[in-house]
Amino acid sequence: MTQGTRPSPAEVMFAADEASRGLGIELLGHGPGTAELRMTVTRAMVNGHGIAHGGFVFLLADTAFACACNSHGPVTVAAGADIAFVAPAQEGDVLVATAEERTRFGRSGIYDVSVRRGDEVIAEFRGRSRTLSTPEPTRDTTARGAPGTITKESR
Fold first, then answer.
1. Three-state secondary structure call for residue 42
2. Which residues pair with 81 in a beta bridge?
3. What does residue 48 show for φ and ψ, rounded to 5 degrees?
4. What percent of the chain has pLDDT over 70?
5. Mean pLDDT for the chain?
């Protein structure tokens, strides 16, 4: 962001994301339907097998997904997500998650996120998004109720 420029919806959302920023996740870049974030695996992120806990890898990918799907402006949330862990990450590894929009239809979208350590893929994530509804234009709902509403009189 440059001085005098309004922050993008992704920047606003990320700035308010205490969970991700508290883990040291950095927003490297973003654009319409895309985002790139970075996280270093710390000692606190390593599980009992001595590798990065999958929940932290998921969180990094999910945050990249959130930035990408919120890049268009309306508040958008996850409707679901899946992850495939491809290779383990170790303490000290720097992971980069790159999110790309695959499609948007109606209020839904599909996004893919690759998590890499250098050139090596660590995990592949697919997120399904849902844009929260926005207020519809005002309609006359007096007497009979909103269109499509079943009232006593219409049964």
1. coil
2. 127
3. -70, -10
4. 83
5. 87
